[in-house]
Amino acid sequence: MSNIFDLFKKIEQPSAPPTPIEYIVAGLGNTGMKYSSTRHNIGFMTLDYIAQKNNFKINSFKFKALTADVIFGGKRVLFMKPETFMNNSGEAVVQAADFYKIPPEKIIIIYDDISLSPGVMRIRRKGSDGGHNGIKSIIYHLESDTFPRIKMGVGAKPHPDYDLADWVLSEFSKEDAQAIYPRFEDAMNALSMMLDGNIDGAMGKYNG
Q1: Would you say residue 189 has pLDDT above 60?
Q2: CA–CA separation, 111 and 129 (whole Å)
Q3: pLDDT digit string (tens) for 120-168?
Q4: C-alpha–C-alpha distance, residues 198 and 17, integer Å
């Protein structure tokens, strides 16, 4: 005879396994308040904009980065702001990629580009580092350059003798900031398209 309490036991339904991390989206920059509003930190700024617009915070520390594990654009995404400083960004990205077994083609990097004017955005499927030390580090650690990227224009040096490090670590002028701000919304919308597999569509709509 079964125990009477068996009659009151709930029948447990098997729960579906959680959706695994499908994409990594990393915005590049340098950690610390003194760098927060500099040209080199536009990758951080873009992720902060996306997080604010979508009501999440990138504040969980793992993989040498501040992270957020969220559903965005219908995909489970790990957003990352590497805390390694720009030149070692690849250390953070490769740790997350190895842990979640994410291929380079599903790692999207957002970063500054001095060859583009402020207010200009470019999307690429893959490519060289273009002299950008953060991208150089990511290519080195992933052993691949086949990751998509969103490049945010920050403007060229005002004259050839201007030190490059001083330029990328300088703050935006009021005029440049006004030109750049609308691109944060564009980057967010382009990212949604890229996560949906429509990189060509994002390039066609936002490269210009």
Answers
A1: yes
A2: 11
A3: 999 999 999 898 999 999 999 999 999 999 999 988 878 787 888 878 8
A4: 27
Active site residues: 40
Query: What is the strand order of the sheet 121-124 is part of?
Result: 60-62, 65-72, 75-82, 23-27, 107-113, 149-153, 121-124
Residue carrying the six token digits 């701000």: 181
The count of other CB atoms within 10 Å of the CB of residue 160 is 6
Annotated domain spans of the chain: 18-206
**CA atoms of 61 and 82, how far apart (whole Å):** 9
**Is 18-206 in CATH node 3.40.50.1470?**
yes
* pLDDT higher than 60, residue 81: yes
Q: Which residue has the tokens 């979508």?
A: 54
Q: Is the whole model's pTM more than 0.70, yes or no?
A: yes
What region does 92 belong to: left with phi over 0, alpha with psi -120 to 50, or beta? alpha
CB atoms within 10 A of CB 85: 17
